[in-house]
Design brief:
Blueprint lengths: L2 H24 L3 H33 L1 E2 L2 H5 L5 E2 L3 H7 L2 H32 L4 H16 L2 H11 L6 H6 L10 H29 L3 H9 L4 H12 L1 H16 L3 H6 L12 H11 L3 H27 L6
Antiparallel strand pairs: 1-2
Length: 320
């Protein structure tokens, strides 16, 4: 009987202490709560100037009739509403380019992940010196500017002086003449400059896997492929999802490689992707409003992918 009041009093005091701590944490001075935002303010200002205002202008122009006449001041800009988007969605070429962009980006993502993951596993199997050489070579490819890398790949596959045709015995075969061979050439360059990110990220994830797990798989007689599929891939799922979405964002908006290696989109536009298509509409045809509409469509697609990416970043410690 005497223990009940003591127990209830202790519980009450415990609740009071908890509530008191919560009350003190919620009533911190405004200056303390604003400190993180003060540190972030310069970066937010820069991002606002470099991102928010251009996106606003892009969206605004996409709702106007804005051609060379409006740019030169000969005619006033008129509001078109969703007219530019209706014109764009009713254009069969836009859907052809969108399909080509999705297929090309998907092929680039799959190839990049395959090469990056394979080399990441290879890094765990070689000695220190070959591992360092491979890492330096990969980081060199990653650091090479897109224009420089594209020009080098064009020289390698040049029909007259390129060493690739000589080694393969293809004579004066032009890789950029055919639609699929040109896309293949650009894909190889994109994978070459993109796989290091996947390789380094996955390699870091593999190194974090407990060695006991891999030793147990080896004792059970699992092959390298079975170890990757049944052990490593499930444990690296958060990392694989993140690098996949990151690669989708990068490869979906490829511009430099296509523009440089296919001379602006290939013969009769056979190698156009959305970024190059928007550039041609805006600057080659002076249809700035249509080019802006294409940019907004791309922005919405990439925004959806980015939101998924950010959501997965918050769930890296959870099962995906």
């Amino acid at each position: 009987m005497s223990g009940a009041p003591f127990s209830s009093g202790g519980a009450v005091r415990g609740r009071v202490r908890v509530l008191g701590g919560w009350s003190r944490s919620s009533s911190r001075p405004w200056g303390v709560r604003a400190t993180p935002w003060i540190y972030l303010a310069p970066a937010l200002v820069v991002l606002g100037g470099l991102l928010v205002y251009p996106v606003y202008q892009l969206g605004l122009i996409s709702f106007l009739e804005y051609t060379q006449a409006q740019v030169s001041g000969g005619e006033p800009a008129t509001f078109q509403g969703f007219g530019n988007y209706a014109t764009l969605l009713g254009d069969s070429e836009f859907w052809r380019v969108l399909l080509a962009t999705v297929v090309f980006a998907g092929a680039c993502v799959v190839s990049t992940l395959a090469v990056g993951c394979a080399l990441a596993v290879l890094l765990t199997r070689v000695r220190a010196v070959p591992r360092l050489a491979l890492m330096l070579a990969a980081l060199g490819a990653w650091a090479t500017p897109a224009v420089t890398g594209s020009t080098v790949w064009l020289l390698l596959f040049d029909p007259d002086f390129g060493p690739v045709n000589r080694m393969l015995g293809l004579g004066d075969h032009s890789w950029t003449y055919g639609r699929y061979s040109a896309f293949l050439l650009v894909l190889l360059e994109v994978v070459w400059c993109s796989f290091p990110f996947v390789m380094v990220t996955v390699y870091a994830g593999i190194r974090a896997v407990p060695t006991e797990v891999l030793e147990a798989a080896a004792l059970d007689g699992a092959s390298q492929w079975r170890t990757w599929r049944s052990v490593l891939a499930p444990m690296l799922r958060p990392i694989l999802v993140v690098v996949t979405i990151q690669s989708v964002i990068w490869d979906f908006k490829v511009f430099t490689q296509i523009y440089v290696m296919t001379n602006g989109g290939g013969i009769a536009g056979q190698n156009l992707v959305l970024n190059v298509y928007a550039y041609q509409k805006a600057f080659a045809s002076s249809q700035y409003s249509l080019g802006s509409a294409i940019g907004v469509v791309m922005l919405l697609i990439l925004l959806a992918v980015t939101l998924v990416y950010l959501r997965l970043l918050r769930r890296q410690g959870e099962e995906l």
